[in-house]
Each structure stands twice: as C-alpha cells, then as structure tokens.
Amino acid sequence: MINRAKIYPLYKEFYHGQGLDSEDALADLYRFAIFYDQLIHAETGIQELNPILRHINAMDSRVVYPYFFMMLEMTSTGEVSQDDVIEVAQIMESYLFRLKVCQLPTNGLNRMVIALCDKAKAVGDYRARLVSLLNASFPDDKKFADSLMNVNLYSLRNNLVKLALVVLEESRTKETIDFDDAQVEHIMPQRLNNDWRIELPNANRINEEMGGVIGNLTLTKYNQEMGNKVYSEKKEVYQTSNVSLTREIAAEYPTWNKESIVKRTEQLAQELISIFPRPVDTLQVEDISGEHTITESIDITGKKPTRLTISDEDIPLDSWRKMLISFMEYIWQLDSRNYEKIKGDSSLNKMLFASQRVPEILDNGTSIETNFSANVVLALISKIAEICDIADEVSYTIK
Length: 399
Prior knowledge:
By secondary structure, the protein is α+β, with helices and mostly antiparallel strands. The protein is 54% helix and 8% strand.
C-alpha cells in the first residue's frame, strides 16, 4: 500500500524512470482519468461490465479501481478481450459481496490489488491469477449461506441489503431496474404493534432474532403506506406489487412467522450463491513464497519468514519466533500504550504475558511467551495489528 503523502514523490520517480516528458505524462494522466470517469459512472462502453461496476460502486469498493484501470487499458490496446474483463469483474464482484455479507476484514485488499497489477505473474491468464490470489479468503457457499441466515443484513453499511434485493429482482427480470426511489420493506415490521403480537404470539422474539435477515426483507415504493400493518393486510398489497420479489411473498406464504422467514432466507441464499458464485480454481495450488499481508488467510506450515515489513520499514528475519519478537519491539517503540491495549484483550494477555514457558525479555524489560507455531504467530500478530490499527501497514515475506 502506498502512503498518500508519498504518492507525488513516487510519481516523480516513475516519471523520470520511464523517461517521460510533460506531454507524455499529461497524455498518460488523461487516459487514466477517462478510465476513472468510466468506472465511477459505470459507463465503460462494455454493456455487461457496467451493471457489475454499479454493484461494486454500491459496495463502496473503489480500492479495486487500480486493477480495473489495468484491465480497461489492456482492453483498449487489445491485450485482453472484453469477455476477459467481464469474467474477472464478475469474480471480483462475487468476492466483495460475499466478504461484506460474511463481515470479513477487507483491509488486505490494498496489497492484493497491488499483486493483481503485476502483469508478469499473471503470465497472460488473468482469471487464473485472480482466482489463485482470492482463493484462500473467498467465503465458501456454506459460510455465505450461514451468514445470510444469521447476519442482520439490514444494519450493514452501504445499504448492502438493498443491493442484494435489487440484484435478486434483476435476476428475475433480466433487466436493469431503477430502484433509486425504492425502499427496503420489513415484512415483519421493526416496530411491532399489538395486532402483530396477537396474530403471532412470539413475534417479539422472532423479530429480535431474524427481523433484519434477508428473508424478512423486500423492496417497495410505498413503504410509508405499509407501516406496521399485520401480514394479512400487507399480503393484499403485495399481490399487486410491480416488484416480482414482493409479489412472490403473497403467492407463496399464506402466513408470516419464523418458519416463513427461514424458508425464504434459504431460498434467497441459494439464489445469491448462484448470482455471486465462488469460482473454481482449476490450477494447482500456487506457491505461496513471497510477500503477504498480515490479514491473508494462508497456511504457512513448512515455510520460513525472511522479512517483516511495517510502514515500509523492512526487518530481516530467520524464524517465526524472531518475527513475533521484532513485531512486539516495533509496536512498543511506535506507542508504549499499545501494550496496555494488548493486555486488555483476555486471550492475548493470557497467551503472551500470563503463562510463559519459553519467555523472551524485550528491550523494554517486558517478558513475553514465544513458544508458538508459525500459524499461531501469524494469528497473534494479525490480531495485535488490528487492535493497534496498523493492519494495513504490516506484511511479511516467506520462502
């Protein structure tokens, strides 16, 4: 990841390194400014790509733009086909949507995008390169479906639930629909009145458990009219809705209760699994030697660390134990209060400070436990980095 303050100095270095003059540089910036405009407005001239970009923009995932800059430029020069770009965009869209629904961290995307922009490592097969890099952290169908059943999708950022409902509707009509003025409707309303409690005796508990899952939500343009009417009254309105997703509710569910919400959530989850599929990696597992972000989910058993990088500072290593010690030394120097944050986490405090079999005395006089497997060391550093708010700045290199 490039620090914002270093962008201009790095660009000057690039400018001189490429032997550019002012006209070349302006032409280069103009070309990519056009790509940027195409991305933010989802108007690329590639019909099937535009709705994918609208969805990515709705998820507020512009961190992937540099990758699409590269793909659009290669399309313009004929280096890749439009079909190639559409295919990798669909994979990225699925990855981002599943990541957000499963509430998994996205702070490793910066370095992943940098890796994706390394054309040499793609060896011409950009789909295979993308799938290989995303594979370890790509939520599988079960985790995705479980999250849809249990996560309050309505409460997630960027109105993710509206995007989910819109793409479900689009999949039924095969058309792009303008739902800018549509609202998300709770079938069982957020605020229950006595009529709901009479019609469904355990309504409060059901609403608390499942009121925000996708099975209890739909789209409407008359949310105010619906209010908190009981289902028997809402169903009559749903029957005449111009939204197929909403009409189906009235046709398929004579009553609305927990079983109805579970059944509809399962149905919609299967549809979303098809709309946002997890790609199959048809290649052999890629050699994981090289640099990785601290948040990547990979098995490093049998690998040896050679370098820890924090905020562009490289620390040479020869063992996982040394990596943990070096990291703990660094965060103390960064801010001595970081240790209090770590000790405030019960599991970290127990593992590092409370019980010590193979202790190491650090430069500040603090003693920490160091007898951990490679994968546990990574997990410890990753968690500490998140607590200290530097996860985006930490990476390591293995061989």
